[in-house]
Fold these 2 entries.
Entry 1:
Amino acid sequence: MPFSGNPLDRASNQRRDADWLTSLHGGPQSRYLAFHRLNPLARRTDSIELLWLDADVLRHLAEDSQPFLLGIQDGVAHFAVDLSHLDDPVSELGLDEAEFTETRGAAARLPAGDVGIVAHGRALIEWHRRHRYCGVCGSLTEVRDGGSMRKCESCGQEHFPRTDPVVIMVVWTGDKCILGRQKAWAPGFHSALAGFIDQGETIEEAVAREVLEEVGLEVDHVEYHASQPWPFPSSLMIGCFAHATSDQETVDPVELESATWFTRDQIRAAYEDPRGQHGFNVPGSIAIAHHLIKDWAFQTTDDHTAV
Ligand SMILES: [Zn+2]
């Protein structure tokens, strides 16, 4: 699953030790992954790989910025740094054959573990950018634990990086499933229904509510299938299969332009021949929706009849 498989050890316990963190900062072995406006630095070659910098990059950080510890691999500390304040960081750092690469495009081309690291670094940098001030008293907060917490010294409140859970579901009955499309999407593009989990709600309850809101269908069985970190900016996609009690949908025009039932055969044909003329498109392979719809279509009906 793209954006999963981060190989770094987050060192959650060790990072509470300020002396240990200090020994890593600027250390000769430490490696730094730079982000510019949330895009990671990559080496420009025939293929693509992340370009890790040495401690020299620290001279270029903004005055109020600092590296965030992503984790440890083979005894080496790996940090994320934000260079968004620079207009042209590739030139200012004197880098050759390097570029800040758009995350979605890079996700389809980078090695799997690298994409997981990008997911963490991107979400973490964006969370720090949005949470400089305490939500309780409004004072400036300070980075703690290498970036896995911000503390307000004024009121004592601790703030932790947030992840927003989203349910995304293939809603099916019999041999067909319903996919939605939004007006802004490219012609023919369809995807699984999705929505944020509300407070005080289970995964299953969120699936049932979102399906009812978006297409007016009731579901009587929800089955968890897979999850995916989605760092735009900080979601966790929770993929499910949901069995609908009828196929009489009523589309909410605020949420969707339309919703359409597709048979397994139609969907299988679209995956087997992506360039063919099927009258609809499914999401690309970096999105969990791609895998969720595919897994539903290519499994036998028997796999999903336990209602
Ligand atoms: Zn405070």
Entry 2:
Amino acid sequence: MYTRELTRIDPIPYNYSGIGYTFPPISVNYKFREEAQVLNVIAVAEEEGIFNTTFHDRIYLCTNCHTGFMSFREVCPKCASSNSESQDIIHHFRCGYVAPLSDYSNAIDDQMNCPKCNKQLRHIGVDYDKPSVLHSCRNCGHKYQDFVVKAKCVSCSFDNEVDQLVYHEVKSLEITKKGELVATHGYVSTSKDLEEIIGTVKMDVFRTMLRYEIERLKQTEGHSNIAGVFISNAGEFYSKIGSSMERALLKDLVEVIRGNIRTSDMITFKDSSTLLLSMNDIPQKVGENIMEEIVQLILKLLNTNFPNLNIQIKYAVKQVHAKLNHELQIQQLLQQVYTDVQS
Ligand SMILES: [Zn+2]
Ligand SMILES: [Zn+2]
Ligand SMILES: [Zn+2]
């Protein structure tokens, strides 16, 4: 975005966007049904201080599929059918009788006669008024005065209760100074860059190896662990040191870890701020001690190279469970890493 010299993005109303608005350079990456995610991405970027935002509009999205095209209809409060007819309620001033229009009409002419006092009703405002409307449901026969409004989703057909629709704010975005820095010196966030760092394996390989390890643990008595290291202020940190320095730093980081684990253990980048590694065939306690040492070494390395930048590192070690799915265990570890403040 920054590279195209855009510093401001205004949402544009757009038929072919799932949420009814498009953010030109951002939305192109999303499919119709996934476009609500654009709002999440913007929210995260705003939190990170990449954008300043101003309110533009409010939208309501389907509670089932999160798209924004809905048909609002008045429906029967009893059976939710939109198949209904409506007629005026007539109030005859002279005798006070109140009934739907059909009670005053006849089949022969268009005169209105009061069924109670038999007098003819001529002038609205003089003889009678119409205080309300009566609706009759053609589906269930229910008669009612107050409609319920429902919003049927055009994409998935789910009929939403209007008061349960979740609203989202659509905002105009302006890139901040920090955002410009991230865009120009940026994160090494492409997975290709990360994969090229020697001593690491791809995330897929890591997953597969963990699956094998789980199978192996079912047969043996051993203990194995997975561990995660997370640089919690990576965005800020990387934007200050620039991308070539960032790459060099990540290489050093991998080297430090490599030097403290076995050759058979694996290291992978989940993203440019999170590293995962395996520590097979050692008790969790030992794994924790090793990780603590590794983190101290990393901090020492960083504080020597960037004495003025305060890097924050979180980590966790989790014993591999022989009965749980590998993906679940990775998620549990990440959750621990992201929430635990250990250093
Ligand atoms: Zn829907
Ligand atoms: Zn009357
Ligand atoms: Zn009905």
